[in-house]
Amino acid sequence: MNQLTFLGTGDAMGVPRVYCDCDVCTEARLTGINLRKRAAVLIHSDGEHEPFMIDCGPDWRSQMEDQGMRMVQTLLITHAHFDHIGGLPEWADACRWLGVKGHLYAPREVIATIQSQFPWLGRHMNFLETDADIELGGWKVRSWKVCHGHNGYSYAYRLEREGYTWAYCSDAIDLKASEKQPLYGLDLLVLGTSFVHELAEFSTRSVYDMVEAQELLQDLKPGQTYFTHMSHDVDVRQNYDLDQGITLALTGLKVKLGE
Predict the structure, then answer these.
(1) In the chain, what are the domains?
(2) Can you give the pLDDT at residue 210?
(3) Where are the beta strands (DSSP E) in the chain?
(4) Would the pLDDT of 1 be above 80?
């Protein structure tokens, strides 16, 4: 079965935030409904294909334990911010102990940044560029740069297989027409929305809020949408009266990709 698993659905700080006693963080500590590790997903594909992950944040080790898995040999990275690559040293150590070479896929400029931050990683993995279309796990994968607001840029991924198309766009805001173009015609979209309605000055922001995201979705019209990358502003117990077809992704949620 082609399946997507949300390993984490939190923003850069995760939920609960260690210093915070708000209702959402308190609930996350007590019962865990709002517990959110840093955003990452796992893709299982039909056939002989090995699973692969999108992003490898600082919660990688515990995310693997949550799934009862000891290793994923292939990663697809959206950008080189810590909440998306902070688990790479642990992943590299797993490669070393298991005697395997990891496969890290990312756009060329993202690879260059990772190599500058962790120059020793190349001993334990192969770096593979995604600037041209690639095939991964039976999926045709396209990458493109998207606006990450105050935080610069990220990359989004569009994946197609056997007539089913979905995209992962965890860190974006204020997308221009050319950046939105690959997000049309989707069966499923995973979209980052850090707040329900963020009040900070727009120039300081880096990810869509849910109000803006719904306006975007009215244009894109994907079949299904899952919001991820959510901060402690979001309480998944609440009814936010979101448009039809939108789901707040919970950590551990599994979604079928295709028939």
Answers:
(1) 3-256 (3.60.15.10)
(2) 98
(3) 3-8, 40-44, 52-54, 74-76, 102-106, 125-129, 134-136, 139-147, 153-161, 164-169, 188-192, 224-228, 246-248, 254-256
(4) yes
